[in-house]
Amino acid sequence: MTARGSIAALMTCMAAAAAASPAVADSVPVGVPLDAVETTLGVPTPQVGAAVPMPVVGAPEAPVLHKGDLLPSPLLPAVPVATDLGLTKVVSPVPNLLGSKETDGEGSLESPATTLLTRTPGAVFGAPLTMPDAGNRGIPNLTAPKLGLVAPELIGNPSALLGLH
Question: Which of 10, 74, 106, 114 is deepest in the core (most CB within 10 A)?
Fold first, then answer.
């Protein structure tokens, strides 16, 4: 095999590997296996399906240096995190709903998929010195230090649906 042929084979393998890589998922569906409980206890068990969220961390906000401050603000920036809360569904048999076998049915609790956005807390810190003062021969003045926290945020719209069939 020539050098040109081996490079072509290597490029083909790399392209195939890139095409076969899985896409990044927002949530991973998971089924909860309860079949062993049903066979052991002899009672019908609910069917549970859920999705495990996969958080995606965003870029933190860049600190800004304000005129007259020695340190940038916020010193510890808030970091945004986003995730999709996947569909969660629980279906359970409801026997003898109205006292007769003809009214057997299923009850369900479903939580539709929704997006959840959060932002971690941040910290603002002010140095106990001012900028160099020309009237004081370039020596900074003492000042009261500042300390503050940026509150965390949680934005979302989760909901639930209850049904009988």
Answer: 74
> Can you say how many angstroms the Cα of residue 62 is from the centroid of all Cα atoms in its chain?
21
Q: What integer is the mean pLDDT of 146-152?
A: 87
In a domain? residue 13: no
Cα 135 versus chain centre, distance:
52
Given the DSSP bridges, would you call strands 47-53 and 88-94 parallel, antiparallel or unpaired?
A: antiparallel
By DSSP bridging, strand 88-94 and strand 105-111 are antiparallel
- Structural domain containing residue 48: 26-164
Domain count, the chain: 1
Report the distance separating Cα 135 and Cα 120, nearest Å. Answer: 41
Provide the CA 56 distance to its chain's centre, in angstroms.
Answer: 6
C-alpha 72/C-alpha 125 separation (Å) is 8
Q: Which two tokens stand for residue 111?
A: 């939580």
